[in-house]
Amino acid sequence: MLKENTKAPDFELLDEDGTSRKLSDYRGAPLVLYFYPKDNTPGCTTEACNFRDNYSDYQTANVTIVGISTDSVKSHKKFKEKYQLPFPLLSDPEHVVCEKYGVWSEKQMMGKKYMGILRTTFVINKDGSIAKIFEGVKPTEHSKEVLEVVKKL
Length: 153
Prior knowledge:
Radius of gyration: 14 Å
Protein name: thioredoxin-dependent peroxiredoxin
Structural class: alpha+beta
EC number: 1.11.1.24
Strand order of the largest sheet: 2-1-5-4-3-8-9
Distance between the termini: 22 Å
Pfam families: AhpC-TSA
GO molecular function, one term: thioredoxin peroxidase activity
Number of helices: 5
């Protein structure tokens, strides 16, 4: 896992429209980079919709939000349209970026072990350094706690 006050690893992934996006594209303003397990699942939908519902507060604070999961570009497009999400969703099907950020890990559900994304959010300063890392995120409360941190940047 990465540490706070270190440089966030750059990356290049496709968004829901197939447009290439790099971390460096977002320099100059704070960025909320959130990793989530899967489109259209209850927790991930709650988390995304809470970011959506607080989006105007993020805009007022000049903060960009970007979501990343291993779902396909096509899945992201449907998810974004269904819930009217106003921010990009990036596709990391080979979990390369997830591994760079230390969020690809063994998980367990009902006794079965599998590899997947640990729900984690990185708040990245305008200079590209990591200001705050949220691990073990609770989807229902998360957007508001992130907002409190970014307002202080």
